[in-house]
Design goal:
511 residues, two-stranded antiparallel sheet, alpha+beta
Length: 511
Amino acid sequence: MIKKTISVLILLLFAISGIFAQDFGFGFGFGFDEDDDEEMEAASGSSITFRSNGEVSVEASPFFKDFMNKNEPWDNSFWNASLNLTLSGSSFDIFTNFNFNAGSINEIWSGSENLKDFNYTPLIIDEAYIRAYFGTVNIEFGFRKLTWGKADSAGPLDVTNPVDYTNLINITDIRARKIARPMIHATWNTGSFSKLEGVLIPNFAGHRFASDGRWVPSQFSNMVDVAATGIISRAIELNPAAIGLIDLLQPSIAGNFQDFSLVFPDTSGLEYFQAGVRYTTTINFSAGSSADFGFQYYYGNLFRPSFTIDGVDEFLVDLLTGNFLIPGSYFGDLNLLDPKIKYNRYHQIGIDYAQVLFDFNIRAELALNLTEDLKGDDGSVHNPFIGWSLGFDRSLFWGINANFMCNGTIRLFDSKVGDNPVFDAEAGTNATFTRISLQLSKNFLRDELESRMVFIWDIENKDVYLIPSVTWTSGNLVSELSAGIFAGDKNGELGQYRDNSFLRLSLKYMF
């Protein structure tokens, strides 16, 4: 049903664009510029305009370790195309942006399992929505990517869209990695420099992570091992004499869990709705300077799930009283265990600020995120936490441009967090998370050649990600040579991908 609905939606949007183009005498072509639109508008005698653009690219990203081990390093090569169609009238706009590649096309026509859940946005849809104008009020509805806050990277106030982490090669392009969500978004321009926004998202989707391959995060791939280790710790806590049976308990429990099914919740229903309001304005000071401020409230779900297990004590009593001492004879009754993977509800109250001071373009965000665990003692729910970001961009010496951003989180009631991951989803994690991102760039040859260095450092995790690149632009053709180097703690969010350091070659034509 979902597959048919999505296919009909795509065909309908194409059909609407085609009908208007035909009725108003527009030739369907590529590379329309503003002059073309003005000519078509004058010829048709209508205020309807049609625009189209897109790009085609090929890319190869061989991995260094595969080179050394001679394991077909060129298997990460692919092609991609995008097509953007815009139909504009005096009181409406229709935007349709599509991604075409082997994965997105196969997902639609093969009836991928992902399409059976309405909370899953098909990969072929980048954005597809309609905007209607009612004086000072604009209303948008459809699959939309919405950006809130003032941070250049993923700031704490940018909460409406999940992010695709199935591949970390293009990690710096946050908008490209965002996943469009079905939503209704309204904007009221209350003044020359003030705006009130509201958004309603009927269901929820968490961040998207790889389920297999080299980009699977250890937080997911290690769930079974973490569960087994936590249960063994609980067994020793209940019966200290069991410490002498660890050699027998470990294979018994770990072997049992290999076939254990971990099911993520269905978040496609209206009970997972999300909503928020945001007000932005500019305040002028007496000295002639000004600053931009934003205030927002959001009610939604944390994008990363929590994982705990109920029924552990009952399971251990059954296991320890069974005949597990004989290898392979008994592994316990898994039906006594009830794993809980859930997305936590939360309220967010946030503020952001931007101002130019001493040639520094400064941006800052601060958010208080209140979950249902207001005492910090419910292990199945993440503790309330503070999110923050502070950054600037500035032109330096020798024509070098710098963009600096530091963001992080601070967990509240950290002393209430337990030490067993089976009972507390945040056990063993740091109370703070701090990430520094620094980007240095310089242009050469009349801005046709750009050199760039991106440095990402997770302080608590002690891991880094370096991305040097050189990009040459000639007309509509863009070629890029870059690399990605992961280093640091093998258990960190970035350091766990140390074997995925790569070289990237790409060629893109824009039309």
